[in-house]
Amino acid sequence: MAASPKYLTGDREGIKEFIDQFDVFLFDCDGVLWSGDHLFEGTVKTLEILRNKGKQIVFVTNNSTKSRTEYMKKLTNMGIPATVDEVFGSSYSAAIYISRILPLPPSQKTVFVLGEKGIETELDSENVPHIGGTDPSLQRPIEQKDYEEIASGAALDPSVGVVLCGLDFHINYLKIALAYHYLQRGAVFLATNIDTTLPSANALFPGAGTCAAPLVAMMGGKKPTSLGKPSQAMMDAIEGKFRFERKRACMVGDRLDTDIRFGIEGGLGGTLCVLTGVTRAAEEWKGGETVPSFYVDKLGDLRVGV
Amino acid sequence: MAASPKYLTGDREGIKEFIDQFDVFLFDCDGVLWSGDHLFEGTVKTLEILRNKGKQIVFVTNNSTKSRTEYMKKLTNMGIPATVDEVFGSSYSAAIYISRILPLPPSQKTVFVLGEKGIETELDSENVPHIGGTDPSLQRPIEQKDYEEIASGAALDPSVGVVLCGLDFHINYLKIALAYHYLQRGAVFLATNIDTTLPSANALFPGAGTCAAPLVAMMGGKKPTSLGKPSQAMMDAIEGKFRFERKRACMVGDRLDTDIRFGIEGGLGGTLCVLTGVTRAAEEWKGGETVPSFYVDKLGDLRVGV
């Protein structure tokens, strides 16, 4: 089980063998295909080679700020051909979970969102009512009257039954206070994902997990249910949509604690770690519990053997 | 050691005996004297009685948003006579720690502040250079160029050697990103205090601990050194200033994990828990490690026995 991962960079035969054993490749994006706005060399060609071999490509992203359509545009703008159907994001995963799986009383169907437009779009796509999010009336400092109105409940919508945290570039004190009071009144605590960092410009920036962190602290350590990687709710939804044999699928990612764990816990046939994102060296999984089955310096290294 | 706390409400003799055994009373404020802008009944009279008996009063607050002078004004505006010297706040405690105790290289003396004016005022009072805080240029959403400039270091001040987190009502993504990059470059991680909640309007709102929480999450769980209650750095500074016998001092507070723990770990002669703030019932300390030596329903109950 804990066999050493196979290093594929420069191993022409190994790469061929690797590709042949899978029908489906699930790709994390940030840190794998690109970092921020920098597309890694060889990304486009590698995907093209896989498509030409008839492989199913799925872009599995924990990025909650973009809807599937927006994310597809990001992919194509970066020069990566993609369709909306190939995109599976954590906001979409959360929307599906809320609309189809989560039992909520009819009077408590509204979602209070800590996050960006992408979450709102995906909730809309599943007809889930929501407040908060990008509401401009919440883009301001807290005022004295807010304390009174939040405490009394006058500022709260009684139909809110869920607090959904994603990455919110406009996080502020007022929104954290509102979210906390909804949780205190019994709302279900969900997160699109709980990545603490987000790679950009070859560095790390605050991820969705940092937007949930203040609430987790206030709730005495109670964590949200995450609907992004490594949550298996997301894997089940992906399998339900694409209908593949898990042993013939490979998860490709840069993060051990989300991507690689997601693939291992999902029982996929393999996991491929790239060293262009959060994980920077093979030493990082030594002695750890989450070890990929393959790794390369960068995704583009797969071009060599094909 | 783990004797049951003595309940003083309505116990005239018990209250007299309680007061007589102390020379110094350290008071937490929010949740003890008032909640938000609501002064509890009997607060003023109780303090007056203690002063008339020659007791030293110290207002020990983890409120980091106000300087000692501002806090003294808050006290007097609430109708509570107080002098600046009687106020001991977590921002002041942090400023003293940074200026007099923390060893920093001469080129790394600047503090990046996540917090409000009170922290800046207290740092100024100790001649500690600082950036961040209430700087209006940081009161905006993050922009694309920020990612590049933060990642490259161009947007970072190389003289920053400390990140100090207090309660920041204007917390935003940009400031969290900057603080994280300073920490990544080796800045010392300090907090004025780590209370996760702040009582106001008879309810709880996000406390300073929620401003540090995103950074703690990004740093893989690494916590800041806190200079507020229950940190004994604060107790040492208070004792250094007021020079009292610890066995003749009593800490009065509403929070077990900060106030009562602060008094117990500081070896004070007693701790008094009031049930007007975070702690609402005697059941809350049952079976726990932090048990006060006395408790009352509200501070004003001490009037009865005097």
From TrEMBL, chains A, B:
UniProtKB keywords: Hydrolase, Magnesium, Metal-binding
Residues that, per the record, bind substrate: 229
Signal peptide range: none
Binding site residues for Mg(2+): 28, 30, 254
GO MF: alkaline phosphatase activity; metal ion binding; phosphoglycolate phosphatase activity
Reactions listed under catalytic activity: 4-nitrophenyl phosphate + H2O = 4-nitrophenol + phosphate + H(+)
Cofactor-binding details, from the entry: Divalent metal ions. Mg(2+) is the most effective.
InterPro entries: HAD-like_sf (IPR036412), HAD-SF_hydro_IIA (IPR006357), HAD_sf (IPR023214), PGP_euk (IPR006349)
Highest taxon above the source species: Eukaryota
SUPFAM superfamilies: HAD-like
GO cellular component entries: cytoplasm
Cofactor(s) it depends on: Mg(2+)
EC number: 3.1.3.41
Name of the protein this chain belongs to: 4-nitrophenylphosphatase
Annotated organism of origin: Cladonia borealis
